């Protein structure tokens, strides 16, 4: 999960983005945006991902945030047929790719800008995720977009 800020009449507000990144094709599979850094935001994102990918049973990599370490989330993982993977405290190996995405979106669309409404910030995030998945070429994927890499996989599978 990553935090973003926007301003209304000079007052700073927070917005949180929770997302799942597929390690194979680097696609953002699911995301939710909310005003609170809470378990509901993560659960909604996870439920959306499972609903739209019912046959997927991946390893779920995350950090050790309370949203991912509680019994309810563990039950959701088990019910979805997934295994959870978390690195030790102060080691970001499992969550490194997601942290990389947070850096990319912030570097390319957030840092150096001031968002003057929640809508403006939400629109930027949603437009960027669409761009990232469908238009942003990635060298690690053989100069394909994440969606093109995903489509290539589906042809072989």
From TrEMBL:
This is Integrase core domain protein. One of its GO terms (molecular function) is nucleic acid binding. GO terms for biological process: DNA integration. SUPFAM superfamilies: Ribonuclease H-like (SSF53098). Pfam families: rve, rve_2. Residues 1-154 form the Integrase catalytic domain.
């Amino acid at each position: 999960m990553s935090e973003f800020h926007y301003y209304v009449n000079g007052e700073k507000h927070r917005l949180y983005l929770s997302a799942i990144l597929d390690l194979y094709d680097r696609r953002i599979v699911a995301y939710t945006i909310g005003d609170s850094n809470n378990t509901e935001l993560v659960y909604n994102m996870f439920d959306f991902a499972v609903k739209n990918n019912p046959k997927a049973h991946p390893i779920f990599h995350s950090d050790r945030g309370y949203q991912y370490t509680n019994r309810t989330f563990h039950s959701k993982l088990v019910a979805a047929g997934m295994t959870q993977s978390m690195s030790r405290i102060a080691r970001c190996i499992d969550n490194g790719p997601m942290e990389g995405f947070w850096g990319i979106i912030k570097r390319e669309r957030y840092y150096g800008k001031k968002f003057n409404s929640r809508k403006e910030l939400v629109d930027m995030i949603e437009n960027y995720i669409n761009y990232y998945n469908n238009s942003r070429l990635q060298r690690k994927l053989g100069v394909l977009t994440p969606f093109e890499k995903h489509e290539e996989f589906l042809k072989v599978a």
